[in-house]
Structure formats: C-alpha cells, structure tokens
Amino acid sequence: MGSHQIKFFACRNSRRLTENIVEKYGSKLGNSGVLEFSDGEFQPYYDESIRGCTVFIVCSTYPPMDNLMELLLMVDAAKRASAHRVIAVIPYFGWARQDRKDRPRVSIGAKLVANLLRAAGVDRVMTMDLHADQIQGFFDVPVDHLYASGVFVPYLKSLEIENLSVAAPDMGGAKRANAYASYLHCPMIICHKQRSKANVVGSMTAIGDVEGRNIVVLDDMIDTAGTITKAADMMMERGASSVRAVITHPVLSGPAYERIASSSLREIIVTDTIPLKDGVDTSKFTVLSVADIFADTISRVYDYKEISSMFIF
Q1: 193 is catalytic
Q2: What's the CA gap between 126 and 146, in Å, rounded?
Q3: Is residue 306 in some structural domain?
Q4: Which member of 101, 193, 197, 230 is catalytic?
Q5: Average pLDDT over every residue of 36-63
Q6: Which PROSITE patterns does the record match to this protein (predicted)?
Q7: Cα–Cα distance between 48 and 183 in angstroms, integer?
C-alpha cells in the first residue's frame, strides 16, 4: 500500500467530476484556489500542506488553453511545495489530434503537451480513450490509459437493442468499433468520409449492411458534430431503423448542439470527462459518469496493484 498520504485537487473546469471521483474513492477534495489578475493571468495555489503527499490533480485539457495552463501551474506548484509524487489525471487529453505530421511544416501538439507536463514535474499520467494509442509513447513517465467501455457496454446491454450493428464514423475508428462488435456479437459498419478541409466533411458512404439495423456509432470524441450527424442522416436514408452515438469526450464546439438537436440521431451517449454546456438543448444526451473507473484506478495505482483486469476489452 502507498505509504504517503493521498490528496486530491481539481482544476476549475473539472471540479464536478473530481468531486464525484473523490466521493467514490472515499476521501475529500483538497483546498486550492486561483488568484486572478486583471490582465487574464492567473496563479493556482494550495490552501493546505502537501509536503510528502501523493497528489492527484484532475483536469481535462479541452480549449481554451487556460485549462492546460492551469494544470501545468498546479503541477509546478505541487512540486515546489515538496509533494512526494504528482499524478495528473487528464480525463480528456486535449491537443491529441496533433499526434503526427500529416502535412509539411506543422506542429505535433500532443508530443509538445507531453513534454510540457514532464517539464512541469508530473510523475505519472492517467487519461481515458486517447485519440491515438501511440500518444502514450510520447511520455517518459508511466501512462494509465483507461477505457470508457466499462460504462458504455453495460448501458448498451441494458437497452436490449434488437438487430444491433456497431459503426465506425471513419476508417480510424475501425479498431474500436471492431472491439465493441466482437464483444456485443453484432455486425460492424464502417463509414468512409472524405474531408474537404478540417472540421468539414465532404462526401460519406457506408460499408456494411445498414437496412433494418439499429446502429450505434462509436467515436472517442465529438467536436463540431459534422461527421456524426452526417453519418446518422446517411444511414437513416439507407434504411436504418435507428441511429445512436456513443462518444467518450463531448467537446461540442461551434454549431454542435444545434446539429445534434436537428439530426436524425435518436440518442447520444457521452461521459462526464467534459461537462455539457448550460442553456442548450441536451434532450438527446445521456451522460454516464466515469468517476467509478477513475476512483478504482487511482486506488489501484496508489496501492501498486495491476489495473488491466478492470477493463472489458
């Protein structure tokens, strides 16, 4: 068992999820705050001693950049306050789409973020459903890569959907969709899309039997909702009985909420790695909490126990 006292802290954007994780773990949230300057600069601080403690800091790094910067400053402050170990819990790892040079003269943002976290002083990283598995290799510290299938699969089974098919919204999601299809014993469909530019889908076709099927489209994140709503509308036009979406990270920028509300999606199932916006139409959304998964993993990491047996696949 970990011999150092464990303490939990939250960045401002992930406070609700952190409170749920801490409650499931059976502890309490540590006291911290943020001093804000009039020019927009800010300085996080700890309101209690963390000397010699194992510190878990929970923060999803979705835009704006302030969220990532707050996490980096929290890590730096913890190291300077003589914490024994600092573990960054990043339910949604932002900048993950920049995982390679897909054209000349571009940054690899995911690698840069990994370097920044290491420079700030993280000893370990815990995250969920990375956009690309190889991002784990960008870190020179241990990475615990968790999967939301632990909450999605039981929920899908509880719906008892007949004529179920699992769909990948693009070729990149085929591996994830195949894992779900194998576990749920159902056929798989792959959508082939051609982008005219970033965040804009040109044409889309489906590979697989769509007619008369109740389809669940799987993806790790949803941003402008262009791909997912276009896929749903296309499959309904081709005779699908219903289309649902299962998405781990609801980034939901730009016209995403309006697109989902007016699309043929019956339901969109997401996790609470990123909170939904207030004051928008969320009637089609079902939010499943991943607090249990993170609390259990934190407990195992702290006690130096293996975590692989926790995951369905």
Answers
A1: yes
A2: 7
A3: no
A4: 193
A5: 97
A6: PRPP_SYNTHASE
A7: 46
